[in-house]
Amino acid sequence: MKIKLFYFARLKETLKYSTEDLDLPADVVTILKLKAFLAKRGDVWGEMLMGKLKVRAAINHELVDDKAAIADGDEVAFFPPVTGG
Amino acid sequence: MKIKLFYFARLKETLKYSTEDLDLPADVVTILKLKAFLAKRGDVWGEMLMGKLKVRAAINHELVDDKAAIADGDEVAFFPPVTGG
Amino acid sequence: MTVRVQTEDFDVGFEISQLRKMRKDTGAVVSFVGQVRDLNEGDSVSQLTLEHYPGMTERSLSLIIGQAKSRWDIFDALIIHRVGTLEPTDQIVLVAVSGAHRGEAFKACEFIMDYLKTEAPFWKKEVTQSGERWVEAKQTDDAARERWTTTHESIE
Amino acid sequence: MTVRVQTEDFDVGFEISQLRKMRKDTGAVVSFVGQVRDLNEGDSVSQLTLEHYPGMTERSLSLIIGQAKSRWDIFDALIIHRVGTLEPTDQIVLVAVSGAHRGEAFKACEFIMDYLKTEAPFWKKEVTQSGERWVEAKQTDDAARERWTTTHESIE
């Protein structure tokens, strides 16, 4: 399953990634599983995605929770709670 | 007791008075008594001040009710409910 | 605090900008602009004339701002109200409130409008197809004002 | 409905005036202008950089206006939000709502701001004397948004 990933704000800065294309293993089918999958990349990934920091996710520009299902071709984004306005 | 009187909006238009100086009899000491005193001037005065029309009053630029006491030198005004904004 | 009653039009952008820049810790300016509608009580309106009670008007508007300032943590407030003859789409009134944060500024601005509508001595006469008529005070305006006294806690 | 995300400044007076004149039966335009404060969490702020999620930002702002339109009897709404580097007293955001009457326009405008603050993908990084830092989301913003769902009836 191929997806496009985006990171914003503190996540982008710390992970040093703003976007990447990924081909996910068959069992990575939800946001929570995607976080766990990325966390395996190492310390800073685990800290950022599975640590104390609140992380919000979007699929195809829509806010979703950890249980949301990911489909092939989706645009997935991870970012901290928003602070606009 | 000398007062200055003002009328606004529909009252001014119907009574054909915008302002007048009055020397009140000794017993005309409240807004209600002043209304009754003015109503004695004739039909349109009675209709306007003691009739069905809601009349609001101010003494020295402050909204007051019928029981408010009038003092020598006061500026008294009668007008319909306000409709600004 | 600024209160102006005038026949001339006003520049909303300029006024909001002045209020905004007055302090560098201003975070929010909430404003209300009232416009003459071409429609009232189902009739089309071609003209509106606003009369007021000079002296009392300025006093009551200042008192309303004073009340808003004592109730909410706002920095400053401005009211400009036009009088004289106006036409549909003309601006009638501007209320603007500045503060550190939006919640207080929103409440204070709406409070000022609700009190202005029921306490400030302005009267409107409108011209419709069937002639001139005085605009009647609305019960909905009294109700809007009452909210601030009776259910104050739930509004805040 | 207008949604714009831009680095350039905006002209509040022009935008409000456009919205106001769109319909001759417009009676009220309520607006909110947000400004960069020189102070946050007790520290003086010299600069602010706003990042956003292009595409999702526009979508979420449009959805927020759509929700406001479905809940209140308003005519139209506008959101302009700046991104990039800003300084104290710079304008950040404009929300303006037009309608026949003020009550609905006030509610819709505040609703849009409360949702924008908690749902639109913008992030602020500020420069203080002690360096750069990401601005933390505020619980008061979450609480402000919650009002529209949990105590909806008492707010209206």
Automatic annotation (TrEMBL), chains A, B:
GO molecular function terms here? Answer: nucleotide binding
**Signal peptide residue numbers:** none
Keyword terms: Nucleotide-binding
Report the record's Gene Ontology biological process terms: Mo-molybdopterin cofactor biosynthetic process
State one Pfam family annotation.
ThiS
User: What is one cellular component GO term in this UniProt entry?
Assistant: molybdopterin adenylyltransferase complex
PANTHER family xref list: MOLYBDOPTERIN SYNTHASE SULFUR CARRIER SUBUNIT (PTHR33359:SF1)
UniProt protein name: Molybdopterin synthase sulfur carrier subunit
What's the source species for this entry? mine drainage metagenome
Name of the gene encoding the protein in the UniProt record = moaD_1
From TrEMBL, chains C, D:
SUPFAM superfamilies named in the record: Molybdopterin synthase subunit MoaE (SSF54690)
As recorded in UniProt, its EC number(s) are 2.8.1.12
Offer one example of a GO biological process linked to this entry.
Answer: Mo-molybdopterin cofactor biosynthetic process
Signal peptide positions (record): none
Q: Which UniProt keywords apply?
A: Molybdenum cofactor biosynthesis, Transferase
What is a single Pfam family found in this protein's UniProt entry?
MoaE
Gene Ontology terms for molecular function: molybdopterin synthase activity
Q: Does the keyword Transferase apply?
A: yes
- InterPro entries (UniProt xref): MoaE_sf (IPR036563), Mopterin_biosynth_MoaE (IPR003448)
| Keyword Metal-binding attached | no
Q: Which EC class, in a word?
A: transferase
PANTHER family according to UniProt: MOLYBDOPTERIN SYNTHASE RELATED
- Name by which UniProt lists this protein: Molybdopterin synthase catalytic subunit
Source species, please? mine drainage metagenome
Q: Give the classification, highest ranks.
A: unclassified sequences, metagenomes, ecological metagenomes
Q: What gene name is listed for this protein?
A: moaE_5
